[in-house]
């Protein structure tokens, strides 16, 4: 979904555009994600996990995450079966889940602060776009991008393509997400990042990165507004996992 040019090539010292993550950030789906992972793990004969175990092991690429839980390598064929099983199960949960409690307020606050906004998710594009519209928040975004090809890799290349498509220079943008992969993508392209404690990692892991960590999405907007533009060559170290 594309709603026009978000061109931010003018000068200035502040962040002008926010890229929102979806799963675990705007969309409060952690319960459904853990349940869907457990359904996929049944295919491997691996015991179910709880939310705490999920936080301890989650990483991207997602195949590595399953390998950590299984304690063994996973073949390409097994990975495809796991991915299909996960999405089949997750779809059954979607209607029982919804936006993070303050997501509409945060989107409104960003709009009122003069920020342009877009949405970038690693969830399947054909499922993401109608759900965003169904939840009544599509009007906030100049573009919505989900994953258009199968995969469970990192977010960096997708963020690069997303910013190019909307004409936003990375130095003027901030990514709000809930995972270390969101931070890695932001760092790789030279954007700022704010991490939301949405359940994908333990809080201390997020805080060890040195970037702002928030409990609410409205707090994320405040952090974005206060964030200076990124300068070339500034890369924060992330904790080893």
How would you describe this structure to a colleague?
By secondary structure, the chain is of the alpha/beta class. The protein folds into two domains: 17-29 and 99-226, Rossmann fold; 30-94, DNA polymerase, domain 1 (Orthogonal Bundle). Helix content is 43%, strand content 14%. The chain has helices spanning 30-41, 51-57, 62-70, 76-94, 103-112, 125-134, 156-166, 180-189, 203-207, 217-226, and strands at 17-20, 27-28, 98-99, 116-124, 144-147, 173-177, 192-196, 213-214. It has a six-stranded parallel β-sheet, sandwiched between helices. Strand 7, helix 9 and strand 8 form a beta-alpha-beta unit. It is globular. Mean pLDDT is 90; it is low at 5-11 and 233-241.
Give the CATH topology of the largest domain: Rossmann fold
Strand order of the largest sheet: 5-4-1-6-7-8
The total count of helices amounts to 10
Order of helices and strands: EEHHHHEHEHEHEHEHEH
Pick out the low-confidence regions.
Answer: 5-11, 233-241
Radius of gyration, in Å, reads 17 Å
Strand content: 5-15%
Number of domains: 2
CATH architecture type of the largest domain: 3-Layer(aba) Sandwich
What can be said about the biggest beta sheet? 6 strands, parallel
Q: Count of DSSP E strands?
A: 8
Overall pLDDT level: 90
Multimeric status of the protein? single chain
The CATH class assignment of the largest domain is Alpha Beta
From the N-terminal CA to the C-terminal CA, the straight-line distance is 35 Å
CATH superfamily of the largest domain: HAD superfamily/HAD-like
Structural class: alpha/beta
The portion of residues assigned to helices is: 40-55%
Any idea what the shape is?
A: globular
């Amino acid at each position: 979904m594309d709603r026009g040019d978000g061109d931010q090539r003018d000068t200035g010292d502040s962040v002008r555009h926010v890229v929102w993550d979806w799963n675990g950030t705007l969309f409060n789906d952690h319960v459904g994600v853990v349940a869907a992972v457990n359904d996929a793990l049944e295919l491997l004969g691996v015991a179910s996990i709880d939310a705490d175990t999920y936080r301890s092991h989650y990483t991207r690429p997602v195949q590595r995450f399953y390998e950590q839980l299984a304690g063994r390598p996973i073949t390409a064929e097994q990975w495809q079966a796991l991915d299909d099983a996960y999405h089949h199960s997750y779809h059954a949960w979607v209607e029982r889940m919804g936006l993070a409690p303050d997501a509409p307020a945060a989107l409104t606050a960003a709009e009122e602060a003069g920020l342009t906004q877009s949405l970038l998710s690693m969830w399947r594009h054909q499922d993401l776009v109608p759900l965003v519209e169904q939840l009544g928040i599509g009007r906030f975004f100049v573009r919505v991008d989900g994953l258009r090809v199968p995969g469970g890799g990192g977010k960096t290349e997708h963020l690069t393509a997303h910013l190019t498509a909307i004409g936003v220079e990375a130095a003027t943008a901030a990514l709000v997400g809930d995972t270390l992969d969101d931070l890695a993508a932001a760092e790789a392209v030279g954007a700022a990042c704010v991490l939301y404690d949405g359940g994908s990692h333990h809080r201390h892991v997020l805080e060890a990165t040195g970037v702002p960590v928030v409990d609410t999405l409205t707090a994320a907007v405040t952090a974005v507004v206060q964030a200076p533009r990124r300068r070339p060559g500034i890369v924060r170290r992330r904790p080893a996992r």
